[in-house]
Structures are given as structure tokens and as C-alpha cells.
Design brief:
By secondary structure, the chain is an alpha/beta fold. The protein contains 14 helices and ten strands. Helix 1 crosses helix 2, helix 1 packs across helix 6 and helix 8 runs parallel beside helix 11. The longest helix has 13 residues.
Length: 317
């Protein structure tokens, strides 16, 4: 199996430079002085999440002769918005298949970018997307199981190293594994001594179990749907799992209560709005210190598309 290379990620950075924002590293002055922390706020992207990077690279790689037939994607929300936004920038049609439990704020944002949104039961996303591709001759842009998507997400790793060359620990959310695969590819190539740890909700901890077992262990869709981190309910593919097994130094899980507390901490101390999926790395930093290496740490805040009423509820607990 061919894994993503640093050259792939570097080429992706050039393709997406005019579409994705180069997010800063924000020092966590409120964090433990003995464990310096920087936040990588991908919630500041135009669509509020890192997914714009992989979507932009994948769409840019579609031959010009095929773009008029459009693109299709399936997603719980952030990838949906990313593909819709990028398709609009390229002037091509987009159809996005989303599960019926997708937060309304993400569905509305996807439609606002001009995409056709198809709402289906959570188990039917890929089936319906594949049918649309066949009917329309469109190009499928998967949320993580694609080398161009992985390379696009990996551009975050390039920026981390450029801004903090002596980074020692990078915390990255894990769901389908595209983000972690790409980031780890870049970090390990440029800073071999740095350690990359995945973070996922304990209620969707299939990757942690899979890495411990040395093989993919499948959890049911219903089990993975229990977590409030709706962007972390997917499972790795064979492609992303191959990256994770080779490149991750470890993985930790966090509880629902810890995720909620991290959302509140990011809002009140870092002045960042993070959705639960984007707050898991901060939750790990705050609550799993004993399971993580010490050193200059970067926590990727992967997204901030959170319903205001949910944010208010988390701030009041």
C-alpha cells in the first residue's frame, strides 16, 4: 500500500494556498508552565474546520475536463461544508450526502455554499453517495479515505513545524484518520524526534482498540454515534490505518465530561469556539497528562462549528 509522502504534502500546500487559511499557533499562556502548549486553531478556517484543506487539494487534482460533472461527498458536517465551499470556489456543482443526525448548523452552512444536500439514515451515506456518482458521472471526494485528502490535511503539519521547529508533542484528533495520517506524515518527516499522539472519545474508541490489537477492530455505527463529538464518529479505512500504525506514537481517549470541560476552557481561557470534536486534544492535554510525553506541545483544534445553544449549555455546567 502506497502511503502519503512529504512531497505529496508539500505539493498540496502549493495547490491550496489561495483557498485554505494558514492558521497561526496560539500560545496557551493559561496552560501548565511545565508543559508549554500551543493551539493550532483550524476553527478559524473559512468553513470553520480543517476539512477545507483536504477538499481543496482533492478538487484541484480533478482533471479540468471532468470538473463540469461536479463532485459528490458524504459527511457528518465539516467535510460537507468544505467540499461545498471549494466546489463553489471552482465553479462546479456539488451534492453532499449527510446523516440525519448531523447538527442543523452544519447542514444550513453547507446549503449556504450552494450545494445540494441529501439527508439520509446514518448507515446509508456511502451507498447514496456512490449512487449519485454513478448517475451523474461526478467525482467522489471521500472525507478521509483518499491520498489527496490525506495530503491536504497534512499541510497542518508543515505549518506547525515552520512555526515551532522544536515541537516535541503533537496532539491530533482521530476519527476516519485522514487528519492524523497527513499531519503525522509531515511531522515525522520534518521532526523525527517529535511524538504524534492521536486523541479520540472513549465512546468512539475503535482506533485505540485497533492499534492495541494490531488490526482494524470494527465498532457498530450505533456505538460510535454515542459521543457528542459528532465529527469523530467515523472509523479508519485500510489506507488511513496503515498510516496510523506506522506513524502514531500513541493514542489516548477522553470522556464526554472531559470534552465538554475542554470546550468551556477553550472558550473562556483561549477565546476560541471549538466544537466537541475540536476540543478532544485540549481535553487530553488537561486530563491525560500522565499518558502523554512531556515537552513543547501543539494541540490541533480541528473545528468550531458548534450550535450556540450547545455552547451555552457547556459553558453553564
Amino acid at each position: 500500500m502506497n502511503l502519503t509522502t512529504l512531497e505529496d504534502v508539500t505539493a498540496a500546500a502549493e495547490r491550496i494556498a489561495d483557498i485554505a487559511m494558514r492558521t497561526p499557533l496560539l500560545p496557551g499562556a493559561w496552560a501548565d508552565a511545565h508543559r508549554p502548549l500551543w493551539l493550532k486553531p483550524e476553527n478559524l478556517q473559512p468553513i470553520g474546520a480543517f476539512k477545507i484543506r483536504g477538499a481543496a487539494n482533492a478538487v484541484a487534482r480533478i482533471p479540468v475536463s471532468e470538473r463540469a460533472r461536479g463532485v459528490v461527498a458524504y459527511s457528518s458536517g465539516n467535510h460537507a461544508q468544505a467540499v461545498a465551499y471549494v466546489a463553489k470556489r471552482f465553479g462546479i456543482p456539488a451534492a453532499i450526502v449527510v446523516p440525519e443526525n448531523t447538527p442543523a448548523v452544519k447542514i444550513e452552512a453547507t446549503r449556504a455554499h450552494g450545494a445540494e444536500v441529501v439527508v439520509v439514515p446514518i448507515t446509508d451515506r456511502e451507498i447514496v453517495a456512490e449512487r449519485l456518482v454513478a448517475e451523474r458521472g461526478a467525482t467522489l471526494i471521500p472525507p478521509f479515505d483518499h491520498p489527496d485528502v490525506i495530503a491536504g490535511q497534512g499541510t497542518i503539519g508543515l505549518e506547525i513545524v515552520a512555526d515551532l521547529p522544536d515541537v516535541e508533542v503533537v496532539l491530533v484528533p482521530v476519527s476516519g484518520g485522514g487528519l492524523a495520517s497527513g499531519v503525522a506524515t509531515a511531522i515525522k518527516a520534518l521532526c523525527p524526534a517529535a511524538r504524534v499522539y492521536g486523541v479520540e472519545p472513549a465512546l468512539a474508541g475503535d482506533t485505540a482498540e485497533s492499534l492495541a490489537a494490531g488490526r482494524l477492530v470494527r465498532w457498530s455505527t450505533q456505538d460510535r454515534a454515542r459521543t457528542i463529538a459528532d465529527g469523530l464518529r467515523a472509523e479508519p479505512s485500510e489506507l488511513t490505518f496503515a498510516h496510523l500504525r506506522k506513524l502514531l506514537d500513541g493514542i489516548v481517549t477522553v470522556t464526554e465530561e472531559e470534552i465538554r470541560a475542554a470546550v468551556a476552557t477553550l472558550a473562556t481561557r483561549a477565546h476560541l469556539v471549538a466544537e466537541p470534536s475540536g476540543a478532544v486534544t485540549t481535553a487530553a492535554y488537561l486530563h491525560r497528562a500522565a499518558d502523554l510525553p512531556r515537552g513543547r506541545t501543539v494541540a490541533i483544534v480541528s473545528g468550531g462549528n458548534l450550535d450556540p445553544t450547545e455552547l451555552a449549555a457547556m459553558l453553564s455546567t
